[in-house]
Each structure stands twice: as structure tokens, then as C-alpha cells.
Automatic annotation (TrEMBL):
Residues 1-42, 48-157 form the VOC domain. It comes from Brassica cretica (Mustard). It comes from the Eukaryota. InterPro entries: Glyas_Bleomycin-R_OHBP_Dase, Glyas_Fos-R_dOase_dom, VOC_core. Pfam families: Glyoxalase. This is VOC domain-containing protein.
Length: 165
């Protein structure tokens, strides 16, 4: 993968190798626009997505917000992790225009939307699209912003599989 990134104009900022004190093999690359990506080599899995890292200004607040979703919405077959990274002394980040959203599957968009409303009321954030089908394609979603302004979309699992058809 590192060679493919190089061939397409990307920049390798960390050559592939084991993480310090561990056995996972990682490399860090930047795409032509300068966005960094961590490539993680791991065993065979049906889902290639490993994790997402969001930089947050209030780590405790972000953890409290996402704690409510840990079991029901933040994992995928126990292989995807939402990583919240706090850099000490940094309380705010400017968001670039390349990040769109995190999309996470759920078996019940309406029930998940109710949970999101409760958490948002307690901890901040807001619903940006009420639960329901998207015009034209019918896939049910609900979307919201967390207290730091990161967008998450919860997508109905069955509808999404039909979309992939």
C-alpha cells in the first residue's frame, strides 16, 4: 500500500514497521492534499476499515458524549474503533473541508435517533437530520453533530445493503 501511495503522489512520513512496544505494523502517509493517514496491517477481515481519529478540544466531554454509543453504535463486528485524540493544551481545532462524516450502521434508525436526542440534550451536539428515509433512494438515516461539531450519520443496515445491491 505504501508503494501505491508513493506512485500516486503521496508522501510517506513513517515507513512501515512495528509500533513501539507492540506487534502491529503501521505506516503513516499523506495524500497529495497533505491529509495524513495511518495504514495498519492486520489479519484477514471482511471489513477493511480500522478506526477513525477525531481531534477534540475537550477529551472528557467527548468521552462522555460517545460513551453512550460504545456498545450500540461505535463498533463494527468488534473491529472498528472511534479514536478520540486529545493533545494537551489544545482546546480547539479548525475543521478542514475534506472531512464529511462518519457513517455507522444501525438496525433501528428511529430508536438510535431517540438515543441521540437524549444524549444531545444531556451533553451537547445536535441532530442535523431527523430519522427517516432519504428522498429518491429510501435509505433511512439520522445525522447529528457531536459537541465538537463532527458529523455522524447512522444508516439503516438493511437499507444500506440494498443500496450496495
Amino acid at each position: 500500500m505504501v508503494e501505491t501511495v508513493r506512485a500516486k503522489g503521496g508522501n510517506v512520513t513513517r515507513e512501515p514497521g512495528p509500533v513501539e512496544g507492540g506487534s502491529s505494523i503501521i505506516a503513516i502517509v499523506k495524500d497529495p492534499d497533505g491529509y495524513p493517514f495511518e495504514l495498519i496491517q492486520r489479519g484477514p477481515t471482511p471489513e477493511p476499515f480500522c478506526q477513525v481519529m477525531l481531534r477534540v478540544g475537550d477529551l472528557d466531554g467527548a468521552i462522555k458524549f460517545y460513551e453512550k454509543y460504545t456498545i450500540g453504535m461505535m463498533g463494527y463486528n468488534e473491529s472498528v474503533v472511534l479514536e478520540l485524540a486529545y493533545n494537551y493544551g489544545v482546546t480547539e481545532y479548525k475543521k478542514g473541508n475534506a472531512y464529511a462524516q462518519i457513517a455507522i450502521g444501525t438496525d433501528d434508525v428511529y430508536k438510535s435517533g431517540e438515543v441521540v436526542k437524549i444524549v444531545n440534550k444531556e451533553l451537547g451536539g445536535n441532530i442535523t437530520r431527523e430519522p427517516g428515509p432519504l428522498p429518491g433512494i429510501g435509505t433511512k438515516i439520522v445525522s447529528f453533530l457531536d459537541p465538537d461539531g463532527w458529523k455522524t450519520v447512522l444508516v439503516d443496515n438493511k437499507d444500506f445493503m440494498k443500496e450496495l445491491g
